[in-house]
TrEMBL record:
Cell compartments where the protein resides: Secreted, Extracellular space, Extracellular matrix
Species for this entry: Hirundo rustica
Region Disordered, annotated ranges: 59-78
Domain of life: Eukaryota
Family: Belongs to the small leucine-rich proteoglycan (SLRP) family. SLRP class II subfamily.
Protein name, as recorded: Fibromodulin
Domain LRRNT: 81-115
Subunit details: Binds to type I and type II collagen.
Record's keyword terms, sorted: Disulfide bond, Extracellular matrix, Glycoprotein, Leucine-rich repeat, Proteoglycan, Repeat, Secreted, Signal
Example of a GO cellular component annotation carried by this entry: extracellular space
Keyword Repeat: yes
Cleaved signal peptide residues: 1-20
Gene: Fmod
Aminoacyl-tRNA synthetase listed as a keyword: no
Function: Affects the rate of fibrils formation. May have a primary role in collagen fibrillogenesis.
């Protein structure tokens, strides 16, 4: 018997025996290993951490030119059946792909599913109990639909105690879904119509590491971030905030507040977050009057973007800062004390990039001790 035929029969036998023994407590790691070994699938699962890119890579017949699918006749729901509107690859049987199919409703989700993709459809509502059968869900993608807050069940995510990533960006939400599973690690709600985040809206989400709320209409955050003990990234850019959130978690590393209307920052605001590395507050209304002398003098911050504000002086920063963006302000003097309190051989700034273009500083206004203080700088634009 030719070796290729023998290999085919062996693989077929493995497939049959493996799927026959599959149950709800399957070992996902074993399935992924088997997927790599068999090399017969067109599905290629890719971990996803950025909301700008798709959460997976796979192939299926295009449905861009088809008419919206009519709602099917009621079927008897079973814990194992894959809905006819979706694809459930046998070699990754805990995933269900229902995206980009002009769906106007949520199909039934079998109980074995852990990864479900409903994005890029025309879904407008999520009925109460829609996911009660699928309590093992870990990833749920609902972005790029037309879901409104008034058309969501009150406790639609209440039984998803293992859910880690929820994608609902690019919908019509006017408020945060509630309650949210305490297991959540990533919450994607950008490009909605949310205007307010109550202080208790994120209460209990102690495992949340990434919060995406950009491109909404939020004018108030209250102290909603303060209790998020694991939060690493908070993206609140492109909103209507007029003040910073009340209190930051100690775990925070990245804070994005650009394109708001913030004009002041409390004293020692960033000191409560000793791990903070990146702060972006460009395109706000910050003035020197709204800042204390030590607001940005935090030893942990490596990158600070204050471009396109209303600053007239360079704020004092830590000597550990590596990248400082101040272009597009009203700064009229180059104060070396903003970077080095003492200038000598042993004391200098670690700054590598300094942008001061688009201000009122003249090139001949650079102080003579600037090369000694800023000896690490590779880019200085005035």
């Amino acid at each position: 018997m030719p070796w290729a035929t023998t290999l085919t029969l062996i693989l077929a036998g493995l497939c049959a025996s493996s799927l026959g023994q599959y149950n709800e407590e399957e070992d996902l790691a074993w399935l992924q290993y088997y997927l790599r070994q068999s090399r017969v699938s067109s599905y290629n699962y890719v971990p996803y951490y950025e909301e700008e890119s798709p959460a997976y890579a796979y192939s299926y017949p295009s449905a861009t030119d088809t008419e919206p699918e009519p709602e099917p006749e009621p079927q008897q729901a079973t814990p194992w059946r894959c809905p006819q509107e979706c694809d459930c690859p046998p070699n990754f049987s805990s995933a269900m792909y229902c995206d980009t199919r002009n769906l106007r409703y949520l199909p039934f989700v079998p109980s074995r599913m852990k990864y479900v993709y409903f994005q890029n459809n025309l879904i407008t509502s999520i009925q109460e109990g829609a996911f009660d059968n699928a309590t093992e869900l870990e990833w749920l993608a609902l972005h790029n639909n037309q879901i409104g807050s008034e058309k969501m069940g009150r406790r639609v995510f209440g039984k998803l105690r293992r859910l880690e990533r929820l994608y609902m960006n690019n919908n019509n939400l006017t408020r945060l879904p509630s309650p949210l599973p305490r297991s959540l690690r990533e919450l994607h709600l950008s490009y909605n119509h949310i205007s307010k985040v109550p202080s208790n809206a994120l209460e209990g989400l102690e495992n949340l590491t990434a919060l995406y709320l950009s491109h909404n209409f939020i004018f108030e955050m209250g102290a909603s971030l303060k209790g998020l003990k694991s939060l690493i990234l908070a993206d609140l850019s492109y909103n209507n905030l007029r003040k910073v959130p009340d209190g930051l978690p100690a775990s925070l590393e990245q804070l994005y507040l650009e394109y708001n209307y913030i004009n002041a920052i409390p004293d020692d605001y960033f000191q409560v977050s000793p791990r903070l590395l990146y702060v972006r507050m460009s395109h706000n209304s910050l003035t020197n009057q709204g800042l204390s002398s030590s607001t940005f003098n935090s030893s942990s911050i490596l990158e600070l973007d204050l471009s396109y504000n209303r600053l007239q002086k360079i704020p004092r920063v830590s000597t550990n800062l590596e990248n400082l963006y101040l272009q597009g302000n009203q700064i009229n003097e180059f104060s070396i004390s903003s970077f080095c309190s003492v200038v000598d051989v042993m004391n200098y700034s670690r700054l590598q990039v300094l942008r001061l273009d688009g201000n009122e500083i003249k090139r001949n206004a650079v102080p003579p001790d600037a090369p000694l203080c800023l000896r690490r700088a590779t880019v200085i634009e005035i």
